[in-house]
Design a protein that fits this description.
Blueprint: E1 2-4, H1 5-13, H2 22-43, E2 45-46, E3 55-58, E4 63-65, E5 72-75, E6 78-79, H3 92-95, H4 103-118, H5 128-137, H6 149-158, H7 169-172, H8 176-183, H9 188-201
Antiparallel strand pairs: 1-3, 2-5, 3-4, 5-6
C-alpha cells in the first residue's frame, strides 16, 4: 500500500507534532531527482506537477512519483505550454508565462521540500492572484537554521528566482546534501511503519 506524502504529513504527522527527519527528506529528494532525470534523459519529458500529493511512499520504503497527466514533451529542452500545473508549486517563470525547462520542476521540488520539512505550505496568501504575486515578487521561503546548512543551501538553490541560476538535475546530484543521502543507508519503510504503528497503538 502506498500513501502520498501530503496525506502522510497532514493526517498522520502534523496532528501528533511529528516531523519528517532530515534523512527521510533527503531520500525523498534523491528519489524524485532520479525519477525526473530519467524522464528527461530517457523520454525527453518534464513532469510539471511536482508536489507532496504526487509523491508516494510505501511500507517497503519505496518513494515514487505519480500523476503524469500533465507531463509534457520538451522541444529543444524547452516546454511548449505554460498554463498547466498547480499554482502553488509553479515557478516564477511559469506564472509569468515565460519559456521554461526542467528547472521549473526543480523549483517545485524546493517548495515541496520546505512544505514537508515544516509540515505546512510556505507561502501565506488570501487568494490565487495574491499567491502568484507572492511567488513572483516576494522573497523566496527559506528553511530555519534548525536544519543543516547543507539542506538549507540545497533548497535555496532550488528556489533561485532566476531560472538560469537554478541548477539542473545533474548539478543537484553534485551537491553535498544530495550525495550524503544518496549513499546513506536508511530504512525508510521501517521509519514509516514505526510512525503508523505508534499511531495505531495510541
Amino acid at each position: 500500500m502506498a500513501m502520498c506524502l501530503e496525506k502522510l504529513y497532514k493526517n498522520h504527522l502534523s496532528p501528533k507534532d511529528i516531523y519528517f527527519p532530515e534523512c527521510i527528506l533527503g531520500k525523498v529528494a534523491v528519489s524524485v531527482i532520479q525519477a525526473l532525470k530519467y524522464l528527461k534523459d530517457t523520454h525527453n519529458i518534464i513532469h510539471r506537477d511536482i508536489k507532496p500529493s504526487n509523491i508516494l511512499i510505501d511500507w517497503n520504503g519505496y518513494i515514487k512519483l505519480c500523476d503524469f497527466g500533465i507531463a509534457g514533451q520538451l522541444i529543444d529542452s524547452l516546454a511548449s505550454t505554460s498554463s498547466l500545473g498547480c499554482t502553488a508549486y509553479l515557478s516564477p517563470e511559469r506564472i509569468k508565462r515565460e519559456k521554461y525547462d526542467i528547472r521549473a520542476d526543480v523549483w517545485s521540488l524546493g517548495v515541496t521540500l520546505i512544505e514537508l520539512a515544516m509540515l505546512q505550505y510556505p507561502y501565506t496568501f488570501q487568494n490565487p492572484f495574491d499567491l502568484m504575486c507572492c511567488i513572483t515578487d516576494n522573497p523566496t521561503p527559506r528553511l530555519p537554521e534548525s536544519f543543516s546548512k547543507e539542506f538549507r543551501f540545497f533548497v535555496d538553490k532550488c528556489l533561485e528566482k532566476k531560472a538560469s541560476s537554478r541548477p539542473k538535475y545533474p548539478d543537484l546530484m553534485e551537491f553535498d546534501w544530495y550525495k550524503s543521502h544518496q549513499d546513506m543507508e536508511i530504512d525508510v519503510g521501517e521509519w514509516l511503519s514505526a510512525v503508523l504503528v505508534e499511531e495505531e497503538e495510541d
